[in-house]
Design brief:
Helix content is 27%, strand content 28%. By secondary structure, it is an alpha+beta fold. It folds into 3 domains: 51-219 and 401-452, Bira Bifunctional Protein, Domain 2 (BirA Bifunctional Protein, domain 2, 2-Layer Sandwich), CATH 3.30.930.10; 253-380, YbaK protein (Alpha-Beta Complex); 470-568, Anticodon-binding domain (Rossmann fold, 3-Layer(aba) Sandwich), CATH 3.40.50.800. Strands 3, 7, 8, 9, 10, 11, 12, 21 and 24 form a 9-stranded mixed β-sheet that branches. A 5-stranded mixed β-sheet has the order 16-14-15-17-20. Strands 28-27-29-30-31 form a 5-stranded mixed β-sheet, sandwiched between helices. A hairpin with a 2-residue loop joins β1 and β2. α2 packs antiparallel against α6 (167-187), α2 (44-63) crosses α11 and α12 packs parallel to α14. It is globular. 42% of the residues are buried. The structure holds one RNA strand.
Length: 569
RNA sequence: CGGGAUGUGGCGCAGCUUGGUAGCGCGCAUGGUUCGGGACCAUGAGGUCGCAGGUUCGAAUCCUGUCAUCCCGACCA
């Protein structure tokens, strides 16, 4: 491809709206342009990268025996109403009506649709198992689209759905996907964690997320260098030990604490540390008032709380509710004489001694409080976030926490959708059984962004060979030298004839501009045809290396092909 | 949805406090000189200053409303 003919523009300056490297570079390198918030158009270079990633995904999926189909992105409301998700998704779903006022949505995910396809075709155990997938555009009206393609409202997703006779079969289907995902992300040149994940609103049993370590990631990952344990913080269980175990239980005492409301103020007032306090937070969970108690310096884990209550709607209670259940101003809530539907105590609190709590009376706290003796909970459970340095749930060594980009997610769904939609089969005994389902997603655009996050420097992108839009870029140093142009065209044609994707920078620009653009768009191999062509030499340089080497023009084609093959092997 | 910020040629920005001809850098076009890490000179094209009202003789500038975009938070198969 001659760059003088290519639809392609780079930006010298970073658009002010882009904050993170992948977003900045995707715009600067001319991979894509924004159409609206969270909606992007892909230009030729960007489209080629998407295709590369899609092709890797397709190859690895096909290897597992999964079969590609293509469902519609425009979906009738009925199916969603059958499973109840028309309302569950709520405003996040792009909803629309046809000319006859029939309701539709743009598909945010496709469990319902694949299950519907399957229920119409599958009748017998003899037809199971199988796995169907598609690579298709999804629509989610995100509350806050962010970071370019990292969280967008329109995105390309590979979604796969497995259908099995039983749970053992699902385990096998799941393992195949797990391995395929590892192969996919390996081939994309990504370093990643496979973490235990919450099954969330999708329902189901086991779940793993594929997380690319990155400071710009939206998820927090707990990991253990000792034993290799890794989990989403949402999921990671806390291991609680007795705190201040040496203390003897002292007598409970009411203390006047005028205007002392926050944990910080309490620490000051009592001249002690946050682990001596227990805070009582009031939540509204599916309409019920719930008090949640945890150590002063801990954070509530909403996911754990949600799972505990099998809740769909959780929010912090408003000021009025707090004041009515506690009978005091905000800042003095405590478990004694509190008027809530449920009192939940974090497991850690049950391990504490002589702690300080609110008295449900404005201006007062209790100290030397002990769980069991002074109050009792309706539920004691693990409902907090694990923190750095706490014991690993698997081996007990101190854990670390880092941020990650979720590029893939796999679930054992079970029968949630097949039961709701009546997708059943007749088993060997003629008995009707629900099909057992798994679902498996990869965000294609987000994977591209994650690759850039992991492969760039201050000059631009550094594509892995497997996903680069072109393998090679030939820079003609001096366009006005016919000898250089001719030599460059010859190399270009020979490489192209041998199946190499090659760009020829024959633009009427100075060498510096071409070098800078080559670095920016991140082509892994650069050949420069310059002065030394008179000695029959061209320059070979890798984007990821600083130095370059001179190579006889007659050897360059083989050199390049060797290099590419070595890397793609 | 709560908080914060910003909208001025394709990109980056100034001008706004104190109303009066819309500016700079980059990019783009033409000509010339250059030519291995974002050249130089000359000439030129391109903007209803997000939109709608209002104040005023006069609004990019002041007021009101609205829309859009970005960031933080909440939320997120």
């Amino acid at each position: 491809m001659k760059m003088s003919e290519m639809f392609f523009t780079t930006l010298r300056e970073t658009p002010s709206e882009a904050e993170i490297p992948s977003h900045q570079l995707m715009l600067r390198a001319g991979l894509m342009r924004k159409l609206a918030s969270g909606i992007y158009n892909y230009l030729p270079l960007g489209k080629r990268v998407l295709k590369k990633v899609e092709e890797i995904v397709r190859e690895e999926m096909d290897k597992t025996g999964a079969q590609e189909i293509l469902a519609s992105a425009l979906l009738p409301a009925e199916l969603w109403k059958e499973t109840g998700r028309w309302n569950v998704f709520g405003p996040e779903m792009f909803k629309l009506k046809d000319r006859n006022e029939r309701e539709f949505c743009l598909g945010p995910t496709h469990e319902e649709i694949f299950t519907d396809i399957v229920r119409n075709e599958i009748k017998s155990y003899k037809q199971l198992p199988f796995n169907l997938y598609q690579i298709q555009t999804k629509y989610r009206d995100e509350k806050r689209p962010r970071f370019g393609v990292m969280r967008s409202r329109e995105f390309i997703m590979k979604d796969a759905y497995s259908f099995d006779k039983n749970w053992d079969g699902l385990d096998i289907s799941y393992k195949k996907m797990y391995d395929a995902y590892c192969a996919i992300f390996d081939r994309c040149g990504l370093k990643y964690w496979v973490v235990d994940a919450d099954t969330g609103a999708m329902g189901g049993k086991d779940s793993n997320e594929f997380m690319v370590p990155s400071d710009v990631g939206e998820a927090e990952v707990v990991y253990c260098d000792e034993c290799g344990y890794a989990a989403n913080v949402e999921k990671a269980p806390c291991v609680n030990r007795a705190i201040h175990a040496e203390d003897v239980e002292k007598e409970i005492k009411k203390v006047a604490t005028p205007d002392v409301k926050t944990v910080d103020e309490l620490m000051h007032f009592f001249n002690t540390t946050a682990d001596r306090f227990v805070k009582t937070l009031i939540y509204s969970i599916d309409g019920k008032a719930v008090a949640v108690m945890l150590r002063g310096d801990r954070e509530v884990n909403i996911t754990k709380l949600q799972n505990l209550f099998k809740a769909s709607d959780i929010e912090m209670a408003d000021r009025n509710t707090v004041e009515s259940v506690t009978g005091a101003e905000v800042g003095f809530a405590g478990p004694i004489n509190i008027n809530v539907d449920v009192l939940v105590v974090d497991d850690e609190v049950a391990h504490m001694k002589n702690f300080i709590i609110g008295a449900n009376e404005t201006g007062y706290h209790y100290e030397n409080v002990n769980y069991g003796r002074d109050f009792k909970a309706d539920v004691v459970a693990d409902i907090r976030n694990i923190e750095v340095g706490e014991p690993c749930p698997k081996c007990g060594k101190p854990i670390n926490i880092a941020r990650g980009i979720e590029v893939g997610h796999i679930f054992k769904l079970g029968t949630k959708y097949t039961e709701a939609l009546g997708a059943t089969y007749l088993d060997e005994n003629g008995q009707e059984q629900p099909i057992i389902m798994g679902c498996y997603g990869i965000g294609i655009n987000r994977t591209v962004a994650a690759i850039i996050e992991q492969h760039h420097d201050d000059r631009g992108i550094i594509w892995p060979m497997s996903v680069t839009p072109y393998h090679v870029i030939i820079v003609v140093a001096s366009n006005y030298q016919p000898e250089q142009i001719q030599a460059a065209e010859k190399i270009h044609d020979e490489l192209a004839a041998r199946g190499i994707e090659v760009l020829l920078d024959d633009r009427d620009e100075r060498a510096g501009v071409k070098f800078n653009d080559a670095d920016l768009i991140g082509i892994p191999i650069r050949i420069t045809v310059g002065k030394k062509i008179s000695d029959g030499m061209v320059e070979f340089k890798r984007r990821d290396k600083a130095e370059s080497i001179d190579i006889p023009i007659n050897d360059i084609v083989n050199k390049v092909i060797d290099e590419i093959n070595r890397e793609l092997a």
